[in-house]
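Appendix B, example 12.
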Amino acid sequence: MKKTRFNELHKASGGKMIEFAGWEMPVEFSGIIPEHLAVRTKAGLFDVSHMGEITVKGKGALAFLQWLTPNDVARLEKGKIQYTALTTPEGTFVDDMLIYCMGEGDYLLVVNAANTDKDFAWVAGHAGGFEVEVDNGSDAWSQLALQGPEAERILRPLTDVDLASMKSFTWRTGRVAGREALVSRTGYTGEDGFEIYTTDPAPGPIWEAIVKAGAPLGLLPIGLGARDTLRLEAKLMLYGNDITDRTTVLEADLKWICKFQKGDFLGKAVLEKQLAEGLSRKLVGFEVRGPGIARPHYPVLFQGSKVSEVASGTYSPFLKRAIGLAYLPIEAVAEGTAFEIGIRDRTVQAVVVPTPFYKRSK
């Protein structure tokens, strides 16, 4: 298994380590529920160094990414970030990702850990005909996520970056705990916060400084378990569960990242046809109204017939109810529609509800 540069610090802090996407990562430290609630009410620090970083540079970089992704990369300027996807010719997902504009003709793609090699092969394999250089620099990067209402207060004395002036989905460079870093106002929790990237070969002092500064304010180190429950409450997609190479961007309720007016992109024709003809299914949020928790792959039934499986499902520590995501036939996606989920040897009623399940107050 690969190990992040913070691995020994996690073990020293009592992290329960598991294998995830080929990496040894902490699934929890003090427990999923206390970690989840710390992020919602105070702050949490995540090691997300397993994520992938791919650079696309050159005169043709903008044109290449415009064709490779559905969102409008031309809207980006240096210092801004965009959520988007790598789409197939069928309008389905290779992955979802963030694009950082590092400057004219210079972009950083941040992709999911389990997909890094696949994504790099996809990007590099489609670069022919464009004047670009594509590089997988993932091994050089370490990445931390500081999330929660107290995130800015904790990070402010540790960095020379002007955090207060940073808007969501922007980045700046500076020093954090004495290390050169890129700081972005992004995250995967539904809370305000920052992601800190560094290529420093010894980034441990960044983790240690944040933990020390945050402890009096209730910060906890956070594992993968709470990362998953937090992102689900905020209805943030998980590749392999909610989005796959068998689900289109429109079916995944991500029409907003499809800028059809920008010009051609991979999958555009199929998505336009699907838009014109109407969807046959769509990803929705639900609450379980009976006893039990809907876990991924549990059968989803509508009018007595199985129509799909639970994509993501858990007990929400903050909302204190069982929630999840599932693909339903288009006639069943209206809020308030009832359906059933098979939980072990019985079925339990679920109801379509608005998403995101949780949205922080400004």
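Residues 2-49+141-233 form a domain with the Gyrase A; domain 2 fold (CATH 3.30.1360.120). The radius of gyration is 21 Å.
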